[in-house]
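Supplementary Text 2. Reproducibility record for the structural model of the 74-residue chain.

All settings were left at their defaults, and a single model was retained for analysis rather than an ensemble. We include the record here because the model underlies the residue-level annotations in Supplementary Table 4.
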Amino acid sequence: MSQLNDAIKEFEATEANLDKLDGLWRRIEELLPSLEGAGFGSNEVEAHRDIERKFENIRKIMPKIDGFELVNKI
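Retained model, structure tokens:
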């Protein structure tokens, strides 16, 4: 039973992280139009970098699922 509980916990954590990644990705998409022409240090650029860091931190801890692994291609 312990293995089943461990698997369920891992599944729930993965699902929660996928939800977080989805929210971060949507925020990145919202920022993209405002980044065009934005200068270094602008609020939009800093917000984008912050979201990218959060996205990358979550991506790193995501387990492989059936051999599929999230990769950073940004």
